[in-house]
Amino acid sequence: MNIELYLTPLPFAEASLEEKTVVVIDVLRFTTSACAALMAGAKGVIPTAESGEAAELRATLGRDNTVLAGERGGVKIENFDLGNSPAEFTKETVGGKFVVMTTTNGTAMFKKTAKAWQVLAGGLVNASKIVEKVTENGRDLVIACSGRQGNFSIEDTLCGGLMIERIFSNGAGGHKLNDAASMAWQLYQNNSGTLYETIEKGEHARFLVSIGFKEDIGIATTVDSMPVRPILNDGRLIMDETLISLP
Predict the structure, then answer these.
(1) Which CATH superfamily is domain 2-233 in?
(2) Which of 28, 143, 207, 246 has its CA 20 to 30 A from that of 175?
(3) Residue 200: which residues within 8 A CB-CB, separation 6 or more?
(4) What would the DSSP string read from start to end of 29-47?
């Protein structure tokens, strides 16, 4: 298996994705929140790049069937139902509904994956479930780190490195890494025992603390706490185990 990791969105946009599995990572916070929503019983999470697009899609699907969620600058968009804190996605808020969502970093990444064979949303909270799928299908893998405002983020890179570590520990050999994947793997190995502490010191985590979302860091860095596998199907992230015919 060839494993390519992209540290930021710009080089990922130019990557060749045909016949490959893509894992999009946005630890702080979209992919964590998507997992939380599915754990809480949401029918699916629909990532959109822009707030206007999200609002239009919500109008098309109907207010009774959807929840509008998203943030800009870390805080909930005005007139949206929810922001981007994983703690907000509960059975009471999203159960039985589609979540139409737009965020500063993560949601736009899915617009760049149209040519991929399969697209998954991964984080620290569901790393093992993602690795199970990746190793099961055996396809070449692209790990796409959403970063922060187009730049490198330590939390996404560490998450990619953890996934690579677990792919190797599964015993199958013959994997080839690009340089960014090798760096992410080494970064994880050097910080595997202090994930929370390392991520907490990063730019994005410090920013979230400054606007009152310190709790989200703890949620997002608890490895394998949300054992779900969001898979992109017809533009919607749904449970891999319950692929359905979507309306």
Answers:
(1) ComB-like (3.90.1560.10)
(2) 28
(3) 206, 209, 217
(4) THHHHHHHHHHTT-SEEEE
Find out whether 98 and 43 touch, Cβ atoms under 8 Å: yes
- Which of the four pLDDT bands, split at 50, 70 and 90, describes residue 241? confident
CB-CB contact of 7 with 142 (8 Å): no
d(CA 164, CA 52): 36
The token duo for 60 is 């098309």
Rounded to an integer, what distance in angstroms lies between the CA atom of residue 181 and that of residue 129?
19
Name the residue with tokens 């606007």. Answer: 211
Cβ(42)–Cβ(65) below 8 Å: no
User: What's the CA gap between 180 and 63, in Å, rounded?
Assistant: 42
Q: Starting at the earlier edge strand, list the strands of the sheet with 44-48.
A: 75-76, 66-72, 98-102, 44-48, 236-239, 230-233, 118-122, 21-25, 141-145, 2-6, 176-177
Residue 242 has pLDDT above 60, yes or no: no
Domain ranges of the chain: 2-233
The number of beta carbons lying within 10 Å of the beta carbon of residue 233 is 17
Q: Is-contact 20 212, C-beta < 8 A?
A: no
Tell me the pTM: 0.95
Provide the pLDDT for residue 244: 41
Distances (CA, A) of 142 to 136, 148, 158: 15, 19, 15
- Of 123, 167, 166, the residue nearest 145 (C-alpha): 123
pLDDT tens sequence across 84-136 = 999 999 999 999 999 999 999 999 999 999 999 999 999 999 999 999 999 99
